[in-house]
Amino acid sequence: MAKDMENVKYEEEFISNSCGMKLFTCRWLPINQEPKALIFLCHGYAVECSITMKGTGNRLAKAGFAVYGMDYLGHGKSSGLQGYISNFDELVNDCSDYFTSICEKKENKKKLKFLLGESMGGAVALFLHRKSPKYWNGAILVAPMCKIADEMRPPQAVIKILTVLSKIIPTWKIIPTQDILDIAIKDPEKRVEARSNQYCYKEKPRLKTGNQLLMASLEIEQKLHEVSLPFLIVHGGDDKVTDPSVSKLLHESACSTDKTFKLYPGMWHALTSGEPPENIELVFSDIIAWLDQRSIAVDLRSERERKAEFDHPSLALLGEKVIS
């Protein structure tokens, strides 16, 4: 399915992963211009791409970027038990396989490749980076899940019991948590929209899912210093789902030479979809400016390299022969 709207072409497609499971993919492409770069969306836990991240896809495509998203297994329109993550590494591998297949197309091989991960998707982006440290040109991390916020984490004794039970009854929906929508989405109307999205999982987390998210966040927390790619972190100062102080720690600990951390006082967790319009505009203004700066810098460097090659005496002579 393809739709054209406001200089953006939206398309959907189902693919199969390495196990033959059906995965939903979607893309927002700028019309009548060559994309500045490729951006790959990693959505958060219990949500999906085509509705929850529609605003993100449209805004970035209008800014000149080709944007690709995929619903994880057990999420959105993809197959699998809804809200169930049996293995976080396999989820990351699905993303890696699909995203890489887009990057390695002939028309995309020379384009910059950026990851954009929201909440749990921030953890997915960091795992993708760790899987191929030199492959990605940068990442935008929106309230990334580098650690479960203390307010959301069950007591240690409960965690031990749940870890044991997750091996016995992995799909049971019994993990005690607050209603995430109530504390993630600030704008009441957007909260109602999220509740009406049939593709979002709204029940209690399943045992194995909770175990996998906890293990993934602990692993990231222990290896923040290994993050080496360029990144921008945007985080709400009043986020009660993921911890802003850990984003600050990631910014301080990462060995990246190009790293930026923006904290937005008073904003909540869902920065790109759950805030009042003026807040969302501010966040996207910062994201697009960060992307543009790096895309333009690479374009200028490529132009200088092409000029330097042509200025070389032997190449200049070859150029004259071609012209003549």
Protein topology:
Layout: E1 2-5, E2 8-16, E3 22-30, E4 37-42, H1 54-62, E5 66-70, H2 88-103, E6 112-118, H3 120-131, E7 138-142, H4 156-168, H5 180-184, H6 188-196, H7 207-222, E8 231-236, H8 244-253, E9 259-264, H9 277-311, H10 313-323
Parallel strand pairs: 4-5, 4-6, 6-7, 7-8, 8-9
Antiparallel strand pairs: 1-2, 2-3, 3-5
Helix pairs in contact: 2-3, 3-7, 4-7
Brief rundown of the structure:
The protein has 324 residues and is of the alpha/beta class. It has helices spanning 54-62, 88-103, 120-131, 156-168, 180-184, 188-196, 207-222, 244-253, 277-311, 313-323, and strands at residues 2-5, 8-16, 22-30, 37-42, 66-70, 112-118, 138-142, 231-236, 259-264. It is globular and about 55 Å long.
Walk me through the structure.
The chain has about 325 residues and is of the alpha/beta class. The protein has ten helices and nine strands. It has a nine-stranded mixed beta sheet, with helices on both faces. Helix 2 crosses helix 3 and helix 4 crosses helix 7. The longest helix is centred in the C-terminal third of the chain and has 35 residues, at about 275-310. It starts with a strand and ends with a helix. Residues about 315-324 have low confidence and may be disordered.
